[in-house]
Design a protein that fits this description.
9 helices, four-stranded antiparallel beta sheet, 192 residues, alpha+beta
């Protein structure tokens, strides 16, 4: 039996019909992974779509030797690489757990079966992918229009306790600043 948190997250998108809820209860699997486990590896296909029950995750890719953080996920978030999952193409993104985590997941074939037999599944998928797009557009706007302190403040507001779950290097990369700049920024605002 799935935990209520997944059903609650889906119910915020749309009413969950009983037959679809029963299908999810039957098909969705639960897994626990340790800190640093890779949910998606670079240049592989994203075969699973996850719901983060407990834990924390980060998405990044390498540009040359530089790790570029693109997203964070906290409990209650859907975690996957949409293009790689839906198109079964190679992913440049790496998704890594930053702490011990518990997740629910569906495989690509199970997702397709759900889409085929339960039209409402497509509504959920579209809404989740639209949220990914909204988050990406918001992040791009933040990088263009917010200064580093504003970006940092928004990040810690959006992800309470992030500094307990992600290193300063990961946070700085997400903010598009160096770890040294982040340290100076926090020190300067702590004194004011």
């Amino acid at each position: 039996m799935l935990t209520d948190s997944l059903f609650q997250a889906l119910s915020r998108i749309h009413t969950l019909p009983k037959d679809f809820r029963d299908a999810l209860d039957k098909e969705v699997r639960h897994v626990a992974y340790p800190k640093n486990h890779l949910l998606v590896q670079a240049h592989s296909f994203a075969y699973h779509a996850y719901f983060l029950e407990k834990g924390f995750a980060v998405s990044y890719q390498y540009r040359g030797n530089k790790k570029v953080v693109t997203a964070f996920w906290q409990p209650g978030d859907f975690v996957f690489v949409p293009k790689s999952f839906f198109e079964q193409t190679s992913s440049e993104e790496i998704i890594q757990l930053t702490i011990d985590s518990e997740l629910h997941y569906v495989t690509f074939p199970i997702a397709n079966m759900l889409f085929e037999h339960y039209p409402v599944a497509n509504l959920f998928a579209r809404s989740i992918v639209a949220q990914f797009h909204t988050n990406s557009v918001s992040r791009i706007a933040d990088l263009h229009y917010r200064d580093p302190w504003q970006r940092y403040s928004k990040l810690v507001e959006s992800y309470p306790g992030i500094e307990l779950h992600a290193s300063q290097d990961l946070i700085a990369s997400y903010l598009n600043i160096t770890p040294q700049s982040l340290s100076r920024l926090k020190h300067r605002h702590k004194q004011s």
